[in-house]
């Protein structure tokens, strides 16, 4: 059959009227040439379309031969080309983030002395007989639980002058036996005193209220009462401890922990690096380690028309660009394909010629660095 | 009888469900629905002859020209034959006889070769006569312009010498390279015996391909002209009339009714359509060959 090599030029020459091809002693028409020469094993129709398009524009188009390309090692030896990767960081410098958490238990703020709180309900009506209890014997009074004290506090009146619920209008006069001989004290009218007192209720914040609750007693704490066993109580204590130190247990004890502890200081740039989702890369970075799947191939070398004067077939020089042909119905090249093709292409830009049923669009991929607005 | 044969064989190459419709339509005998020779070029349907191109266009099917124009080869604005057809067009009802050109064998081949050689010889003789006349005219011009005193006798003798000794070298023979295959246009009766050697649609029949074909048929039936719209992110560009006279109104994207579509894709295609001032048409073929159309247009709150 036909050799694949010269078919491209043959068909184009036939169309330009330069060449007449014979098959079985009969001349082939252009249509015959299209049908016979173009096939996926030789030159596909897409490739021929791109070839024809570029040739008609005047470019010099040659086949790409990957074996003629210098390998990356050869390139390193022979060509002292400067790798210009301006303004890019290959490796992120990682700062030693001090993992040691300086957790210090915050001291409990001393409970504030809040306003007047009803300490003891004043129970009036009980006579003043507490001073009459016999120190040595104590038969007629209900002695308190602790045997050492001889006072009967239940009968001692401490009237709550500022209480809202029971408003004592007057205080009874004290027992004259307690007073010095010649003094006589009348009834005390509390009303003017009350007017001087700020009787508004003190608004306490929930924290303070809770502290008051806790101060009143661990057993009266609502949350403690909800614990049914020691395990739950310990969990409650751990929660409270965690909340205090800024590392709540539900965030930090699981498999997935937060990226960064807000309590630690970190420069903005490093924080942005920590939370970044996209890892940037170059086209040639790591490309030599990739295995070529063979799905994508570079088809042509294209040389510029105005360099035809110094273009020699024996020494073409560096091409203007390399072309890879595909179609809109086919897959888009993924990063792996892009990297292997960029490696094969070397320092010449790679152009993708995408054929859409007669229309050809050219696309290329270029390296680009996203700017970060971080002032160190 | 020849027509029936054609119909049978054409129907055999197409899908079964179109058989009845096809026969009905061909019986209506529209003058434009004639057999068109479509050949496969790297598994893409192409037309070569000028008559075939005219027939295809008159049926409202637009293709893309692939080749160089013989007179002005070095430009890309106006291309020449062959005409590449969309796969959907290739399957469309009125068109489509695939011919896989067989090489003639044996006696037929020898006959063809003999005919070709005779044609060449005839052309050679004509051209040699013309070349001789050309030389004589050039000689006359040269002699009369140089104003020599030799006069007419020298001229006559020179001309006679030329007559005797002139030979037209065969390497200077101008040969015509035909664009289309010579066989069909010379022998119209050969069309009657064309048969479909293989169906146009390949083995892979994906559902999206079937969807596209149904949408193509429906839109074509409504009188729209369709071209490919890869550059616009869709499947077809829909023109209200011939593409040479109108701009496209719609970008048709073919989806099946059941498959879920990512919202980002819809947004992307809507943006694209509004940028190029075309309405995006989402086409979903339903049962019984009816197609549902949904249009996307950028609008404000009002």
Explain how this protein is built.
The complex is a heterodimer of chains A (376) and B (302). Helix content of chain A is 26%, strand content 10%. Chain A is of the alpha+beta class and 376 residues long. In chain A, strands 3-6-7-8-9 form a five-stranded mixed beta sheet. In chain A, strands 1-2 form a two-stranded antiparallel sheet. In chain A, strands 4-5 form a two-stranded antiparallel ribbon. With 302 residues, chain B is of the alpha+beta class. Chain B has helices at 2-13, 19-28, 50-58, 87-91, 107-146, 151-165, 182-186, 207-221, 263-275; strands at residues 37-41, 44-47, 64-68, 79-84, 97-98, 225-228, 236-239, 250-254, 279-285, 291-296. Chain B has a five-stranded mixed beta sheet with strand order 3-4-2-1-5. Chain B is elongated, with a radius of gyration of 28 Å. The N and C termini of chain B lie far apart (64 Å). Residues 1-33 and 184-204 of chain B have low confidence and may be disordered. Classes of the chains: A alpha+beta (376), B alpha+beta (302).
Rg calc of chain B: 28 Å
Oligomer: heterodimer
How are the strands of the biggest sheet of chain B laid out side by side? 3-4-2-1-5
| Average pLDDT taken over every residue of chain A | 72
Largest sheet properties of chain A = 5 strands, mixed
Family (chain B): Belongs to the tRNA-intron endonuclease family.
GO cellular component, one term (chain B): nucleolus
Domain TSEN34 N-terminal (chain B): 38-89
Subcellular location (chain B): Nucleus, Nucleolus
């Amino acid at each position: 059959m036909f050799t694949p090599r010269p078919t491209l030029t043959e068909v184009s020459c036939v169309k330009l009227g330069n060449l007449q091809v014979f098959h079985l002693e009969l001349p082939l028409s252009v249509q015959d040439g299209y049908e016979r020469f173009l096939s996926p094993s030789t030159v596909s129709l897409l490739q021929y379309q791109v070839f024809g398009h570029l040739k008609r524009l005047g470019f010099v188009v040659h086949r790409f031969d990957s074996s003629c390309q210098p390998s990356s090692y050869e390139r390193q030896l022979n060509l002292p080309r400067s790798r210009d990767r301006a303004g890019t960081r290959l490796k992120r410098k990682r700062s030693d983030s001090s993992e040691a958490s300086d957790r210090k238990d915050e001291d409990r703020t001393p409970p504030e002395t809040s306003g007047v709180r009803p300490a003891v309900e004043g129970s009036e009506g009980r006579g003043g007989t507490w001073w009459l209890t016999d120190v040595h014997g104590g038969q007629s009074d209900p002695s308190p639980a602790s045997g050492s004290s001889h006072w009967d506090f239940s009968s001692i009146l401490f009237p709550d002058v500022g209480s809202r619920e029971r408003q004592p209008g007057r205080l009874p006069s004290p027992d004259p036996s307690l007073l010095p001989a010649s003094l006589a004290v009348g009834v005390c009218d509390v009303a003017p005193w009350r007017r001087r007192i700020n009787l508004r209720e003190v608004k306490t914040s929930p924290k303070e209220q809770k502290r008051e609750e806790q101060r009143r007693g661990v057993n009266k704490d609502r949350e403690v009462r909800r614990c049914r066993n020691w395990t739950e109580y310990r969990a409650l204590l751990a929660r409270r401890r965690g909340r205090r130190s800024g590392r709540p247990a539900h965030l930090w004890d699981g498999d997935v922990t937060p990226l960064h502890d807000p309590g630690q200081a970190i420069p903005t740039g490093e924080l942005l690096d920590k939370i970044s989702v996209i890892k940037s890369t170059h086209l040639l970075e790591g490309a030599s380690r990739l295995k070529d799947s063979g799905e994508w191939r570079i088809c042509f070398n294209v040389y510029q028309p105005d360099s035809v004067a110094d273009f020699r077939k024996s020494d073409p020089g560096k091409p203007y660009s390399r072309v890879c042909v595909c179609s809109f119905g086919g897959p888009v090249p993924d990063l792996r394909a892009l990297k292997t093709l960029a490696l094969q292409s070397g320092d010449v830009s790679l152009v993708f010629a995408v054929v859409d049923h007669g229309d050809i669009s050219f696309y290329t991929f270029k390296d680009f660095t996203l700017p970060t607005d971080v002032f160190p | 009888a020849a027509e029936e044969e054609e119909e049978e064989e054409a129907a055999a190459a197409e899908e079964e469900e179109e058989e009845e419709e096809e026969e009905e339509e061909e019986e209506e005998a529209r003058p434009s629905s004639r057999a068109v020779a479509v050949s496969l070029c790297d598994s893409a349907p192409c037309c070569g002859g000028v008559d075939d191109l005219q027939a295809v266009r008159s049926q409202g099917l637009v293709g893309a020209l692939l080749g160089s124009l013989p007179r002005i080869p070095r430009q890309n604005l106006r291309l020449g034959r062959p005409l590449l057809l969309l796969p959907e067009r290739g399957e469309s009802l009125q068109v489509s006889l695939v011919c896989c050109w067989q090489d003639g064998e044996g006696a037929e081949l020898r006959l063809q070769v003999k005919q070709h050689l005779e044609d060449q010889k005839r052309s050679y003789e004509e051209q040699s006569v013309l070349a001789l006349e050309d030389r004589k005219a050039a000689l006359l011009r040269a002699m009369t312009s140089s104003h020599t005193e030799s006069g007419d006798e020298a001229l006559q003798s020179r001309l006679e010498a030329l007559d005797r000794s002139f030979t037209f070298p065969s390497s200077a023979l101008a040969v015509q390279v035909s664009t289309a295959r010579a066989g069909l246009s010379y022998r119209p009766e050969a069309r009657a015996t064309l048969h479909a050697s293989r169906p146009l649609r390949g083995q892979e029949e994906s559902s999206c391909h079937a969807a596209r074909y149904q949408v193509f048929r429906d839109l074509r039936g409504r009188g729209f002209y369709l071209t490919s719209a890869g550059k616009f992110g869709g499947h077809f560009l829909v023109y209200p009339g011939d593409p040479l006279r109108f701009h496209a109104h719609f970008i048709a994207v073919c989806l099946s009714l059941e498959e879920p579509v990512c919202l980002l894709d819809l947004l992307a295609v809507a943006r694209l359509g509004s940028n190029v001032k075309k309405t995006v048409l989402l086409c979903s073929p339903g049962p019984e060959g009816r197609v549902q159309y949904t249009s996307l247009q950028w609008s404000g709150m009002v």
